[in-house]
Each structure stands twice: as structure tokens, then as C-alpha cells.
Write a structure and sequence with these properties.
155 residues, five-stranded antiparallel β-sheet, alpha+beta
Length: 155
Amino acid sequence: MLSDDVYQTRLRTTVTALEQWLCGLRALATVETARDEACWRVAINPHVVEACPLELVLRTDRQFDFSIGPETYEDQPVDTLDMFQPLLAAIAAGKVKTCRWTTAATATLVRVATRVSPHGGAHWQRSRAIGLVGWANAANLIRDERHYAPYARGA
């Protein structure tokens, strides 16, 4: 595990690199950033309606919060700070999807998963179960996938 000083230095370097990268998105999306002693935050709302909005909060306590489309994943551990720029670039390129599983009988939502697929990198995926614990019989579930458009054509 990195010392606090090393982590803070790498966090500042990562934030600086992300802010430079975000300059190129300003023609394609509304980009808002904020920072304080505890965190750095970016919210990106693309101009293309079918594209995926996001909010990322990098925290000094080595955790992050990530809202991707309709889903929010809080208190996630930072494995490496190098993962964030490829993740944001993949979302901007439309390489993200949200999957929802509902019961066939009642259309009750039982699980939601988000998957981001960076070019040449490891997939980032998180999911959450909702309500029903014993939904293990996948034959009784309907899966719906939402694929997002890129922020710009040809991306």
C-alpha cells in the first residue's frame, strides 16, 4: 500500500492529467469540476442524448464514487489511479452498457450491472442485487441491455 504522501502526490498528478484530457470533451459535453481538501469531482453531461452521463469523485481516503448513467457505485476502493482516464475515455467512446434483470412473471427488477470496456484494458464492472435474494434461476429472468452512444460520431 502506498504511503499517504505518495498517494496524495499521485492523486494530484492524476487529477491534472484528467483535467487536461477533459479540455477535449468540452465541445461534446458539459463538464463541471470541483475540488476541496477531501476530494476532486467531475460531472460530464454529453450533448448527445443517447450518450452516457457520468460523475466521478476521487477521494483522498483512497476510495471513489462513480455514477455511470442511472447507476451509482459509492465507496469503491482505488486499486490504481491509472484506471480512471481509460474508463472515462471508454464511456465517452460509448463502450459502456447497463444490464437489468427482471422476473418474467412480474417484471420485478432483481439485478442491475454496469460494464465499461476500455480499449485494450481490463473491463470495469459493478452490479447490485435488488430485493429478491433467491433469484438464482436465470431461466425465469429477462435481461435488458442498454448500450450508450459515443459522445461524438466516429469515436
